[in-house]
Design goal:
single chain, two-stranded parallel ribbon, alpha/beta, about 40% helix, about 20% strand
């Protein structure tokens, strides 16, 4: 079924892999970017560019209301390119702000636009130390200290906003550590929670098809985080990397 889809974070690592697949499936796709310079690349993919800042509540809401999406996909992040260690402290703070304030704005705009489904990106390494493998019911590390506390706080705010959004089916995808095109790392290497970027994009498509609210761990085969819920309810395949959907 053809639907109208609004993608926030359209030019990021996952967004860039996801957009062509949404267009190929026949959907009407709007892509949010805060950079007008990126609009032509979106147009070339068959995506309607929306230039706005997620922190500009009025502009974001107006754009989403005009688009009238059935589905909103939240892939916004704000981390330094290549995860440069010298810039990570500032990046973690920016990213936490996007997860908290940015997500609240995305949710409000989606509600105003009459969207029915919201799929949002979270992370699978915010669990509190405890028995492994972690499931979606395992507690998050809300007692963390330092930068981790800031990061986990952003995750908690994002997930709460998405799950409690009235009028929306909220889906939270807790991604593993990305590798592949556009991520700065071509191979999974020694990642504890590996996830190919195409697998992350596939999880979004699966979440759209299933339309089952909740939180799902989306990670490649590993010994730390359990993905059986996503396999059972979404049809997730931990080591899938292609573009079969």
């Amino acid at each position: 079924m053809t639907q109208t889809i609004f993608v926030a974070g359209a030019t990021g690592a996952i967004g860039s892999r996801l957009l062509p697949r949404l267009v190929a499936l026949g959907h009407r796709v709007y892509g949010l970017t805060r950079s007008a310079a990126k609009a032509p690349s979106l147009l070339s993919l068959g995506v309607d560019p929306v230039v706005a800042d997620v922190f500009d509540t009025e502009a974001l809401t107006a754009a989403m209301v005009a688009a009238k999406p059935d589905i909103v996909i939240h892939q916004l992040t704000d981390l330094p390119r290549g995860l440069d260690p010298s810039q990570m402290e500032e990046g973690v703070r920016r990213n936490a702000r996007i997860r908290a304030e940015g997500t609240a704005n995305v949710v409000a705009a989606a509600q105003a636009a009459g969207a029915k489904l919201l799929v949002a990106q979270s992370i699978a390494w915010a669990y509190a130390p405890g028995n492994e493998p972690y499931t979606e019911e395992s507690p998050l590390d809300i007692r963390a200290q330092g930068l981790r506390a800031i990061s986990v706080g952003g995750v908690v705010a994002l997930e709460q906003a998405v799950r409690e959004a009235s009028g929306l089916n909220g889906v939270v995808l807790r991604y593993g550590q990305l590798y592949g095109p556009g991520t700065g790392e071509d191979i999974k290497g020694d990642k504890k929670l590996p996830l190919h970027v195409d697998g992350a994009a596939t999880a979004v498509l699966l979440a759209m098809l299933a339309n089952k609210p909740g939180v799902y761990n989306i990670v490649g085969t590993n010994a730390t985080v359990d993905t059986s819920k996503a396999q059972r309810q979404l049809g997730w395949q931990p080591d899938f990397q292609g573009d079969g959907l």
